[in-house]
Every structure is written in structure tokens, then in C-alpha cells.
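EI: anyone free to look at a 548-residue chain?
SC: sure, send it
EI:
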Amino acid sequence: MTDERDETDLPRPEDDAPAPPAETALPPLRARLLGRAPRVVLWLLALAALAFLADDLGGWGLLPRPDELWPWRSEAPPERAVSPAQVRAATAELDDALAAALGRRPPSRAPEPAAGPAGAPSGGPSPAAVPPPPLPPPAEEDPARRLAASMEAGETIQPLENPCRREERGRCAERALDPFYTALRRTALGKPGAVTRVTHYGDSVIIEDLWTGTVRRKLQQRFGDAGAGFLFVARPWEWYGHQDVVTKFTDAWHVKRVTVGQSHDRLYGFGGVSFLAGGPGAKATFATSDEGPTGRAVSRFEVYFLAQPHGGTLEVAADGAVLKTFSTAAEAVECGFRRLDVPDGPHQLSVRSLGGGPVRLFGVTLEREGPGVVYDGIGILGASARALLEPDEAHWKEQFAHRRPDLVVLTFGTNESDHDLSMTGYREQLARVVARIRAVAPFAGCLLAGPPDRGDPNTRKTRPVIPKIVAVQREVALAGGCAFWDTFTAMGGPDTMWRWYRTNPRQSFGDLTHLAPAGGEVLGGLFYGALVQGLLEYLERAPETPLP
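SC: here you go
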């Protein structure tokens, strides 16, 4: 109904109100953009999610491969590619060759009527019944030439470079890994109590025990399980772990790490970390595993500690029952070791501080009588090789003399790639590290396993400094009487971490630096294969060397 008014009508208040502004056809540009911004952001996020999902679905075979779906992202094929299946096949072939080679060795003990001696192939004739044919002395072969030939042939296993340490009458009388292979031969032939120990130091690449854990399991499945080896008594880094031991630690341990020089006396023990009990009740528990083929039994438990004036008391228990209570007090500061034996089998072992003075521990070892292999995996977060120059040399030498590994492996270089390295300075520093290892463990073989690939997440390419670090490590290792294994080339060479990240399951993490579990299995298998390959060459080179 229209409100009609006559001109003679009196005015009303609402007649003076201003007229509403006329509506424009479109809102201002800024308002339109702000109104649509959430939708634009959502569309962009959806497209990004689709791109990542397409990569994953391509890896699962539900979509075309990423290089087909995104042709502008296609990559050139790698110079060397290894798959888990290839590694398994290659190591199985080496195991068969080793079984055949050991079957030709003289028995290490008298055969029993019911079974042949340890090391004899099942179902075959006893080595005592069929004398081994004499083997001709092998011709000396240039390791560099053999390495180049293997790469040209595309072999799955990257060979070790094992230089000569000592020559006699124009021939090599001892190579860098001979102490290790001499011990491993005794273990392989089943000599009673023959335990071969390997200690592997490294940076965060091995801290989760993926690479080292794979090597340990393979060696123990082939040569015998002699125990989990050396372990820390608390978690010095969040990633620290051991594949075949169930650990539990209280928070009452004060940790001093070799990487930051936190201990003024430079006494870090065997593993480069010391643990000071915060008071009574500080506890660490270690249990054997109930899964998998290894790590299910232990018969020797040893505590590494610092004996010192006014030292406190430590309690050791097995399966809830106290085995021993002892004091860590001594007249002077020195290395302390206390071993306890338990029946071979599954156990839960623990150490607990009872107070009464400072209690400072370095670690524990879990072992068995053997024959078998022990493989210590000691990863140090954020470490470069120079961290091994920090411990007091006399103290470290005493630790090594007690632990007595047959082989010391070093894997560093990842953290060195964070810096603009002077290769001249790095070469000199690494030579000091190698000399230190040779000085504290003159009885052991030594091996530098170079750094794995490390990619730049922005470019997905190998960091340019990695091949330079590998070249320097190879030069220093061979000149210092240590063997060398080119991890970088063994795993596939340039840009391998990016390729491993795109596999299913992923073999590396998104930082293109650290190994995923599947990658640790591949790299561990490659390293195990290289060690077994070296043992076969040792058996051919020294067939009649008497067992110690």
C-alpha cells in the first residue's frame, strides 16, 4: 500500500532523514579479493596435496609413475642402482661360497661320529674324511684395479679396499683387515669360545641401529650370536636405540657427551659418553629380545664404570634378584670393570645406583660364550670424526685393551658436509683420527666406511662436498693402514637419497640425510656382503695360516 500524502499535510520527523545511498553494481576490488582469499588458499592446498598424493599413489602402482605423471620432473637413470632383492640375492650367493670355502678347510677339532665338525656343509662329506686339495698361492692383485673392474661389471656388492700394512720379501705379509679376518675364521670354523668383536663408531646415520643392526643380525645368523655387545646406560640422544635389546632407563642420569667436551677430565669411556647417577635410584634395565632370530639369550653381563675416591655403591640384578652389590670406590681414578655370569638364556638385567658417593658409568656389555660375533653400534649425534680426538688417550687405550675389538669401523662425514670444509685441514685432522685409532687399538683391524649420500632437500641433488669428503677419507684410510669402503658409491652414487626417498617403502627420510628402516636394511646388507667377500679373499690368500 502506497503512503500518499497531500501537500497541505504537516511534515513528519522521518521526512527529514537522509535517503539511503544507492547500491553500486559491484563491491570494491579489495573486498572481492578478501572474500575469495580463503577459497583460493584452499584450492592451492588441494592442488599441493594432490601432487604429493600422486607421488605416493604412483609408488604404490595406483597411478602412473611420477615421471610419467609429471614429465617435467623426469630424471636420468642412475649410474648404479641396487634393490633389496639384488642385495638379498648377492649376500645369499656369498654365503654359499663361504660355506663351500670353509668346507675345504681342515677341521678345528676332532669330528664326532654323529655329526661333522662345525663349519662343514650339511649333508656333505666330513672335511676329516676328504683331505682338502692344495690351493695354489693367489697372485697379488691391485685393489684399485679390482675395484674398477667390479664397478665396470656392475656387481651388486661394492668391494672393500684392503691395503697392505707390512711387506716381507717383496710380498704383502699383512693387510689392514687381517686381524679381523683371522678372528672371524676361528669363529667360522667353530673354535670353542671364539668370539669376533666389531666396534662401529659413527654419527647420526647409525644412531638408530638400522645399518649396524642389519649387519649384526646377518653376521650372527651366519657365524653365531655372541651377544648384543656394548650399550649405554641411558638414552644420550632421543634417537638412540638397539635393535635386539629391550631397554628402559630412569631420568636420573646426568649425561656428558664427547661431542661438546662436557667432561673436564676427558674420561668418556668406551662409547664417548659418561653417565653420572643423580642419586640413589638411578637405574637402567636391559632385556633380551623375544622376537627375531638373534638377541634372545645372554650369559655374560659386564659393567664399565669409573673407579674413584669416595665412589658410591652399585647394585646389579638379574630377573629381579640381586646378583651383586659392589663399591666403585678406589684410591685413584681408574677404569673399572665388573663382570657377572648368568645361565645362558633370556634374562632381564639391571644396574641401580645405591648412593653413598658419586657413581659414574660408561656402559654395559651383553655377551655369550660363543663361537659367534658381537657387533657394537655406537652412534654419536652431531659428531664429526674429530670428536674421537677428545677422549683422554691413555684412558681410551685402557678401555680398548679391555674390550679388545678385532675390527674398528668409522663412519663419519655427514656432519662435516654442513660446513665449508678446507680439504687440506680436513685431511690433516682425519689423519690424526686414524693414527689415534691405530694407537689405542694396535691389535685390531681398522676400516673407514665413507659417508652415505646426502641430498639437498631444495635441489634433491647430492651436496657437492660429499664426493670430496669420500675422496679424502679414501686417501687417508689407505695411507694410514686402514681399509676403506665407499658407502656413497655402494648405495648408488649421486642423488641416491632422493631416489631412496621415492621408493615404497621409503628407504630414506625427507631430510635426504638419514636412513629409513628399509634403507638401513639395504645398506647393512651391502656392508655385510663386502665383509664376507673380504673373508673369502682372505681364505684364498692365506689358506694354510695356522689358527691361533
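EI: Confidence is low (pLDDT under 50) at residues 55-63, 106-141, 149-154.
SC: 👍
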